[in-house]
Design goal:
It is a single chain. A 6-stranded mixed sheet has the order 1-2-3-4-5-6. It is an alpha+beta fold and 139 residues long. It has a single domain, classed as Metallo-beta-lactamase, Chain A (4-Layer Sandwich), CATH 3.60.15. It has helices at 91-102, 119-138; strands spanning 40-42, 47-52, 61-65, 70-74, 108-111, 117-118. The protein is built from 2 helices and 6 strands.
Length: 139
């Protein structure tokens, strides 16, 4: 698995004096609706299509707004090492995800990590991943 370099402190301030960071827990959100690939979420003036994009985990999704060409890709594609060897990752699923993303006419991609990028970079990241796995499969 590639290393993901982290520089600087991850936490620079606590919410209050005496706060015990070790006791912090993320409370699970209440499920109000299950979404499927192709469902559309409307925020009133914007509509986002749900894209099932398995990557880090099997249930990962992205949000695609065709009208603006904006893709929120989550952990499916981003600038930086693509982590595909986690215990719940599936490289064959990720290859399918990359093929799907490569063909999306996104103008801007907001990934789950690092900075945003455009269509050319989206295609370059997807192609590099696919080529690396085609070479690995050929060995």
């Amino acid at each position: 698995m590639p290393n993901y370099e982290v520089s600087g402190p991850l936490i620079t301030a606590l919410p209050s004096a005496g706060y015990d960071l070790r006791s912090f827990r993320i409370a699970p959100a209440k499920v109000t609706r299950r979404v499927e690939d192709g469902d559309v979420i409307s925020t009133g003036d914007r509509n986002f299509e749900i894209l099932h994009l398995p990557r880090h985990s099997p249930g990962s999704i992205g949000l695609w707004e065709k009208a603006s060409g904006i893709l929120f890709s989550g952990d499916a594609i981003y600038e930086g090492p693509l982590l595909d060897e986690l215990h719940h990752s599936s490289i064959p699923d990720y290859v399918r995800t990359m093929k799907r993303l490569r063909d999306i006419p996104a103008r801007v991609v907001h990934g789950g990590h690092n900075g945003s990028f455009g269509r050319d970079r989206l295609r370059a990241i997807a192609e590099a991943y696919l080529q690396a796995h085609e070479r690995a499969d050929a060995l």
